[in-house]
Amino acid sequence: YKNKIIHKYPHCWRHKTKVFLRITPQWFINLDKKNLREKLIKNIKETNWIPKWGKTHMENMIKKRPNWCISRQRIWGVPITLFVNKKTLKIHPYTNKIIDKIIKIIKKKGIQIWWDLNKKKILGINSDDYFKVKDILDVWFDSGTTHYSIIKKKKNIIIKYQIYI
Fold first, then answer.
1. 137-156: burial string, b at 16+ Cβ within 10 Å, e else
2. For 110, left (φ over 0), alpha (ψ -120 to 50), or beta?
3. If you ran DSSP here, which 8-state letter would residue 21 be given?
4. In angstroms, what CA-CA distances link 72 with 51, 75, 76, 139, 140?
5. Model-level pTM?
6. Is the pLDDT of residue 150 over 80?
7. What is the 3-state secondary structure (H, E, C) of 41-86?
């Protein structure tokens, strides 16, 4: 049986070439775990919004939002510094301690060290049981947290804010 079908196919807006879709593993923030969605809505309600319509817009967006995909497959960006077990696909049980170690190394040697880092130096004996995540954070994730780094550096400045864009 043969038949012609005409359908729309996604194209790159910049290059005008076909976009090939493929399913790949991603990292998500579950907005319903640990009442995150409710906490976000509570904070939205407690914030003084300018313009006022921003409050309703943001609240509706959070209420309807699916889980947030925070991973991207790029060659540059803020790395998702995780090690995942090859068999179970679970993150390393000592992830918090490992991240603390990685932070110290990155502060000394710069962000590129994550890509160059030998996992044996971090994980030790059972490092072969794990793979290093090569994904980066969504740029809006790190963009939305930049104010924390500014405030930390400018300790003598007192700024009252709840959100900045």
1. bbeebeeeeeeeeeeeeeee
2. left
3. P
4. 32, 9, 10, 9, 11
5. 0.74
6. no
7. HHHHHHCCCCCCHHHHHHHHHHHHCCCEECEECCCCCCECCCEEEC
C-alpha span between 40 and 25 (Å, rounded): 26
Q: Per-domain residue ranges for the chain?
A: 28-69, 75-165
List Cα–Cα distances, 106 to 89, 110, 113, 116, 147, in angstroms. 25, 5, 6, 11, 20
**Which tens digits make up the pLDDT trace of 41-60?**
999 999 888 899 999 999 99
DSSP bridge pairs for 68: 29
Of the chain, the percentage scoring pLDDT greater than 70 comes to 91
